[in-house]
Amino acid sequence: MLLQEPLETFTICEANWNDFNDILNLLNAVDNEFVPSLTESENLRVKITRILNDRQRGWIKAVDADMVVGGVAVIYNYRRPQLGLIETLAVLPEFRRQGIGIRLVQFAMSKLFQNGMDASLITTWETNKAALAMYEKLGFKTIMRSKVDGSYFKLFFMRSFEEPPRSQTRFSRFWNRR
Ligand SMILES: CC(C)(COP(=O)(O)OP(=O)(O)OC[C@H]1O[C@@H](n2cnc3c(N)ncnc32)[C@H](O)[C@@H]1OP(=O)(O)O)[C@@H](O)C(=O)NCCC(=O)NCCS
Question: With 0-12 CB in 10 A as exposed, 13-18 as middle and 19+ as buried, what is 125?
Fold first, then answer.
């Protein structure tokens, strides 16, 4: 009987300009899995550059044997001070269901917390069963559901880093004011 969990072979850390092409390959590989596709809203090179250039944003990567197999972006002070956003979470299809996605989000949450954020926001489309299950496991609570372009529902989740967590009403008021 196996008494210990298998050792992880991947590492999670912050990415930098040296990782530009690897992140581009990753995003190209998963582009059409996003709803809407990533390229529908922005050129991928522009997106990666925008995040690498901004002190309020950053990429995090998962590396397995020198290969970038997953990534996620964080935004500090997103729309209000001390609110973090976790976005563009992706793991290469052949590396899924090994705990890489969840470790990426956990790492992102710890970066946000270490940098003074008091809560994190994360979103996905309503039919994304994998992301929904993962966010629930990580303690994110649904705070809003909104229809985008009359075509699909986007769900917003929040995870507070403080006790007691901020109320939905307060967040919704803030969000609706934008
Ligand atoms: C979502 C995604 C990042 C998950 O990455 P992953 O490395 O496979 O996820 P993990 O192995 O860490 O899974 C963590 C948990 O998430 C849930 N989960 C992951 N994939 C799932 C799936 N296909 N179906 C149902 N639940 C799933 C499970 O609860 C899982 O825990 P378990 O394996 O112990 O059951 C990956 O499927 C992906 O890149 N999808 C395309 C892009 C995307 O949807 N991004 C997120 C929206 S922004």
Answer: middle
Domain boundaries, the chain: 10-177
| Upstream peptide bond of 81 is cis (omega within 30 degrees of 0) | no
Q: Tell me the pTM.
A: 0.90
Q: Say yes or no: CB of residue 129 within 6 Å of ligand 1.
A: yes
Instruction: Domain 10-177: give its CATH code.
Output: 3.40.630.30
pLDDT of the chain, 178 residues: tens digit per residue: 556 666 678 999 999 999 999 999 999 999 999 999 999 999 999 999 999 999 999 999 999 999 999 999 999 999 999 999 999 999 999 999 999 999 999 999 999 999 999 999 999 999 999 999 999 999 999 999 999 999 999 999 999 997 433 344 444 444 444 4
Mutate to test the pocket of ligand 1, among 32, 74, 86, 96 (most ligand atoms within 8 A of CB): 96
For residue 46, give every residue at least 6 positions away whose Cβ sits within 8 Å of its Cβ, in sequence order, or none: none
Ligand 1 atom index nearest CA of 90: 39
